[in-house]
Amino acid sequence: MKSTWKPHEKHGGLSDKDKRELPETVFAFPGKRKEPMTDASHVRNAVARFDQVQGVTDADRDLAFENILAAAKHYGVDVAETNWRQLGKLPHTPNPAH
């Protein structure tokens, strides 16, 4: 699967209004507009919260993980995992994907 993520000029904290105005290409889950990644901190947050995202399919997760990897590379964030199924082995919330 090919990443759809593209960098965007908006960085730092995002208000609800800011999030609504962002293009889908900055989200880990673009169709659901979940987990915006506009800087390194947001990328780390998307990785940390990956297993908490609900209402998405395995195909959505495949795309989101590719998007995270693309954003991580752009912002210089190290991601040790090579597959989204490696994320959240000890999840804080129940996730039927595990």
TrEMBL record:
Q: InterPro entries, per this entry?
A: DUF6582 (IPR046489)
Source organism: Micromonospora arida
Q: Where is this region: Disordered?
A: 1-23
Pfam families per record = DUF6582
Q: Which domain of life is it from?
A: Bacteria
Listed name of the protein: Uncharacterized protein
